[in-house]
Input
Amino acid sequence: MKKLVLASLSATLLAVSASAAMADAAAKYAACGGCHGQKGEMKALGTGPVIAGQSKEDIVKKLKGYKDGSYGGAQKAVMLGQVASLSDEDIEALADMISKF
Ligand code: HEC
Output
């Protein structure tokens, strides 16, 4: 019985921290929406690729690439400024959210 209570308690805690991560990603995406659109549907600054519809894996790879300089086009400096302060966890959470737009 004790075990059952503990198990359901930790399941609840997990659910709470997962939704906190979602809220955090949404708050972080607020900074991105100005260029990419609230649903990732805009061409950033009129030229960048549309990010809506991309897979989580692609977005993670690209964001980490902007951070370490291994990815990007003519305007990659713009994105370096955006991702420089994001942690790997932030990038995962953002990519997960964007892939579901
Ligand atoms: C000031 C405008 C601006 C903001 C703010 C911005 N971006 Fe971008 N983003 C761009 C531009 C421009 C590009 C294309 C850069 C290049 O030439 O590689 C881009 C590219 C990207 C790409 C790669 C698209 C591809 O397929 O190559 C992703 C993913 C992305 N941005 C996500 C984000 C996220 C997540 C945020 C918020 C943390 C963000 N952007 C904030 C302008 C912006």
Notes: The two ends are 41 Å apart (CA to CA).
